[in-house]
Specification:
- The chain is α/β, with parallel strands linked by helices.
- It folds into three domains: 14-146, Nitrogenase molybdenum iron protein domain (Rossmann fold); 156-230, 3-Layer(aba) Sandwich (Rossmann fold), CATH 3.40.50.1980; 239-357, Rossmann fold (3-Layer(aba) Sandwich), CATH 3.40.50.
- 39% of the residues lie in helices and 15% in strands.
- The protein is built from 16 helices and 13 strands.
- The chain has helices at residues 14-22, 36-45, 63-68, 71-84, 96-101, 105-116, 131-146, 171-179, 194-198, 214-224, 239-246, 257-268, 301-309, 320-323, 337-340, 349-354; strands at 28-31, 55-58, 90-93, 120-123, 156-159, 185-187, 205-208, 228-230, 249-254, 273-280, 294-295, 313-316, 330-333.
- The strands form three sheets. It has a five-stranded parallel β-sheet, sandwiched between helices. It has a four-stranded parallel β-sheet with strand order 2-1-3-4, with helices on both faces.
- The longest helix has 16 residues, at 131-146.
């Protein structure tokens, strides 16, 4: 049955991906729902919710408000909240409700800017896509709103570094230290990076660490000639140690594509593997994809792809092991927050990579 899940939890939706990108920027973030979508974001999909404050609100839409399209009441609530908060912008994140009633986001943005005096942006998510598409749309909305001048000193911009894609809670700090050399590395979407959004054209290069950042990186390349690269620094990962535990043969990596591809290339450098492929339920960009990689749609696709490819080892979130019923190969755990949430969350990236050396 299409869409049936027996072993895997529902993956994080586009609404939460958009909220994740905007979370730390000091804005007034309003999810256009009756309350349920916001509850999922704050209760399950945002790892920073218990440690870092953010002004995330539910529109609290009632049936009659949606049916009659009462945007005036919606804007009244946002205006009242804006008076009580020191917000740098106002953002509306879409859900199935505005998608069904065809909300005019452009008109809503203009009305919000007029009533609140704040820059306003809208992320047209629907709740029907996955988190990486929401991240992509949020980056686009940010750059549409705040522009990207080529003024100021050069720095390295980092795109796609939202917690839903990162290995552990300390990953942002490690990323900046790994990617920064002569120039400072700045993560778009991290606290205090609004100014860097405004002068993104001054970046000496951009680094894409998850697929949600590709579209914006190409936009900045087109507008300013800013080069970009796509890879994830693997920190303390040791391909030799992994090979010693799991041996050679064929390996399948199932994660967000940029991290998975970086891991693949590191394994290939050992020369111990016949084939290393990448598969994902999330975005697979053509720039990194290879002919033997797999785009997964249904839960059973993972088992079919693994068996058809004759893979000896699968690397992926611990929940994936349950979906590989009957398969007798090695499984190496590599958590992905968008898949299993806090169930297998890592505090330190060192622990994240260390798990790969346990034979599953």
């Amino acid at each position: 049955m299409k869409g049936l899940r027996k072993y895997l939890a529902p993956f994080t939706p586009d609404i939460s991906g958009a909220a994740s990108v905007l979370y730390a920027l000091g804005g007034l973030i309003v999810i256009s729902d009756a309350g349920g979508c916001t509850g999922n974001v704050c209760g399950f999909d945002e790892p920073r919710w218990s440690t870092q404050k953010s002004a995330i609100f539910s529109a609290g839409l009632r049936d009659i408000d949606a049916i009659l399209g009462r945007d005036d009441r919606f804007v009244d609530k946002i205006e009242l909240a804006a008076r009580q908060l020191n917000a740098s912008f106002a953002a509306v994140i879409g859900t199935p409700v505005p998608a069904v009633i065809a909300t005019d986001y452009r008109a809503l943005r203009r009305l919000l800017e007029h009533r609140t005096g704040l820059p306003a942006l809208a992320v047209e998510t629907t709740g029907m896509a996955l988190y990486d598409e929401g991240e992509m749309k949020a980056y686009e909305a940010l750059f549409d709103t705040f522009g990207a001048a080529a003024e100021g000193s050069g720095f390295i911009g980092v795109l796609g570094a939202a917690p839903l894609d990162l290995p552990a809670r300390d990953s942002c700090g490690l990323l900046k230290r790994s990617l920064g050399g002569e120039a400072e590395a700045v993560i778009y979407g991290e606290t205090g990076s609004l100014d860097c959004l405004r002068r993104a054209g001054a970046a000496v290069k951009n680094t894409v660490v998850s697929p949600g950042g590709f579209k914006t990186a190409r936009r900045l390349q087109k507008e300013f000639g800013t080069p970009y690269e796509a890879f994830y620094p693997l920190g303390s990962f040791s391909a030799a140690s992994f090979c010693a535990v799991h041996g050679g043969g064929r390996v399948l990596v199932v994660h967000q594509q940029v991290l998975a591809d970086s891991l693949r290339k590191e394994l290939e450098r050992t020369g111990a593997y016949e084939k290393v492929s990448v598969a994902s339920w999330f975005m697979l960009d053509d720039e990194l994809a290879r002919p033997d990689d797999g785009r997964l749609t249904e839960e059973d696709d993972l088992l079919r792809f693994t068996e058809a490819g004759g893979f000896d080892t699968v690397i992926g979130d611990p929940l994936f092991r349950r979906a590989l019923r009957g398969w007798r190969g090695d499984f190496a755990p590599l958590p992905h927050f968008a898949v299993s949430g806090s169930l297998h969350e890592c505090e330190k990236e060192e622990d994240f990579w260390h798990g790969l050396y346990d034979k599953g």
